[in-house]
Design brief:
Elements: E1 10-13, H1 14-17, H2 35-45, E2 49-53, H3 54-57, H4 64-81, E3 87-89, H5 108-127, E4 132-136, E5 141-142, H6 150-171, E6 176-180, E7 189-190, H7 195-202, E8 211-213, H8 217-222, H9 227-236, E9 244-245, H10 264-277, E10 283-285, H11 295-321, H12 323-332, H13 337-340, H14 348-356, H15 361-364, H16 371-382
Parallel strand pairs: 1-2, 1-10, 2-3, 3-4, 4-6, 6-8, 9-10
Antiparallel strand pairs: 5-7
Helix pairs in contact: 2-4, 5-6, 9-10, 10-11, 12-16
């Protein structure tokens, strides 16, 4: 029941299972794995896809000949394993040239270089079969607001996405963009820090129809927000193009824990939502194994991400079929035909009738709302007590 299948569309980044365990206070604890080795590891644990930044695969200083050789060997590994590349992105945060941003840098040479690097990254992603290209502006922000005018920064950001959208259209690529929000780290404050901010920004673009979002669980939790609500808003807007699954203690640094390892209810309701609405995109695990992990434990980490999703999916099925939960929901959601006749689309007749209707707020306030009982039943369902 909990073995991953290709139709589950579970994917990992080269940077996730390939993470060497470095942190700001410690050197690497695991030997680096080549991209080819990572593809074979993902095939071994049952994953469907692998995602990459441009320089995860091709070093930033590679020659054209080296680039072609690396890509050729990577494609061979994909063919041998059946692993696909659903998403690609460009690293605009590691190299010191991006220390003050890429698209929003004060230096026009850096902004131009960022566009060049993205076009090359887009070409690489399309060559490997990617249908989604993610932008995470990890350096697009400030430590001091004396350094940048935020309005000018957003103008630069917008111009960059517009430029690259036109590039994709000009090349005839079958590719969509997904913008990924994060409130802070590595910058003190990152522009467009939440999924809601990204959704607002998208509507100002020249081609909003080809740009959506890639919400990440840890990033919303860092800001103390409810990730499910962000995902629901993106889905309602038709903009959930991709999703990053992991786990995170609220209001901490970016921990990128194994999916479902920390916040059980949040993970459960997220999976339930994705399954209920029929989300058919990749379920990408943007997470890292603990720094204590060796190679075998990294495999356990990857298997655990997928297994947890499948366990929560089964729990969502049980939720839908549990008689106690459904009875409580029926009580909570019981309708009133007369009241419902006032709702929905406006009409002048409806408005006049509604203004004259004799509501009894004291009586309405007495309606039972057994949320404690409902939440306890959900907890017992998740804990296996029912």
């Amino acid at each position: 029941m909990y073995e991953p299948k290709p139709e589950d569309k579970f994917s990992f980044g080269l940077w996730t299972v390939g993470n060497v365990g470095r942190d700001p206070f410690g050197e690497p604890v695991r030997e680096p794995m080549s991209p080819v080795a990572i593809v074979h590891l993902l095939a071994e644990v049952g994953a469907w896809g692998v995602n990459l930044h441009d320089n995860d695969l091709v070093p930033i200083d590679a020659t054209p000949q080296e680039r072609d050789r690396i890509v050729r060997e990577f494609k061979q590994a994909l063919d041998e394993t059946g692993i696909v590349v659903p998403m690609a992105t460009t690293n605009l945060f590691t190299h010191p040239v991006f220390r003050d941003g890429a698209f929003t840098s004060n230096d026009p040479r850096v902004r131009a270089y960022a566009l060049q690097k993205c076009m090359q990254g887009i070409d690489l992603g399309v060559e490997l079969g990617a249908k989604t290209f993610v932008f995470w502006g990890g350096r697009e922000g400030t430590e001091t607001d004396a350094s940048k005018d935020p309005q000018e920064a957003l103008k630069r950001y917008r111009e960059a996405i517009n430029f690259l959208s036109d590039y994709v259209l000009d090349q005839g690529y079958d590719l969509r963009f997904a913008l990924e929000a994060k409130p802070n780290e590595p910058r003190g404050d990152i522009f467009l820090p939440t999924t809601g901010a990204m959704l607002g920004f998208i509507q100002t673009l020249d081609h909003p129809e080809m740009v959506g979002v890639n919400p990440e669980m840890a990033h919303e939790h860092m800001a103390g927000l409810n990730f499910l609500h962000a995902v629901a808003q993106a889905w309602d807007a038709g903009k959930l193009f991709h999703i990053d699954l992991n786990d995170q203690n609220f209001a901490r640094y970016d921990q990128d824990f194994r999916f479902g390892s920390h916040n059980l209810k949040q993970a459960f309701f997220l999976v339930k939502f994705l399954e209920d609405v029929g989300y058919d995109g990749p379920r990408h695990f943007d997470a890292h194994a603990y720094r204590t992990a060796d190679r075998e434990d990294v495999k356990a980490f990857a298997r655990g991400c997928m297994r947890s999703y499948l366990v929560f999916r089964e729990k969502a099925r049980q939720f839908r079929e549990d008689p106690v939960i459904q009875e409580l929901l029926a009580e909570i959601r019981a309708g009133d035909p007369e009241a419902e006749s006032f709702l929905g689309a406006y009409s002048s007749q409806k408005a006049q009738a509604l203004k004259q209707h004799p509501f009894q707020p004291d009586e309405l306030a007495k309606r039972p709302l057994p949320y404690e009982a409902l939440d306890q039943r959900v907890m017992e369902l998740l804990l296996g007590a029912v």
